[in-house]
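Throughout this chapter, every protein is written as a compact record of paired, labelled lines. The reader may check this reading against the record printed directly beneath this paragraph:
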Amino acid sequence: PAWTSATIDTLQDADVECSVYSLASVAIDTDSLEAGFYGNDVYLFRGYNRNYHQAQALAHYLSRRQKIVIDKALVTGFIPSKLHEALVYKSHDIRHPRTWFIRSLDNIRDELFDFPVVVKDADSEKGKGVRLAQSLDELRREIDMHSGRIIVQEFVPMTHDIRVLCVGDQVLGA
């Protein structure tokens, strides 16, 4: 993906050795964990929801070997949830779109939302399952169609995606 390529370029510009691997293609040999995949300085795990346990095991191992694992949630514990992500931002006073986890049509009132709102499948990733609801009726249909397992977020009009790559307290790229 473009974001991963840009991240690799930024890391290489900062003289950080890095490579891209798919967890599906990494052969894990517990007798030779220091070669190949394990020779990098920094590890950024992306799209690992389906391979979470393998990613977590590798992240723990790498962290214990003094490697930098950018996604510390893998090392300290991880909850694959958009709600968890929103609560982490909120707890650190980081601006983030207002977020609701909706389980029932009973909780929905028009005055809660300024339409349009963004509707996401609770367990989606990489922009899959994202829709825009223009009205309370559209939102109710989305909730009904997805058995109440959706995230609703305030719509923030953007012309482009903004991401910042930080390692420790240093910004390596944006």
Observations:
- The chain is about 30% helix and 15% strand.
- Residues 89 and 96 are 7 Å apart (CA to CA).
- The two ends are 15 Å apart (CA to CA).
- Residues 52-64 form the longest helix (13 residues).
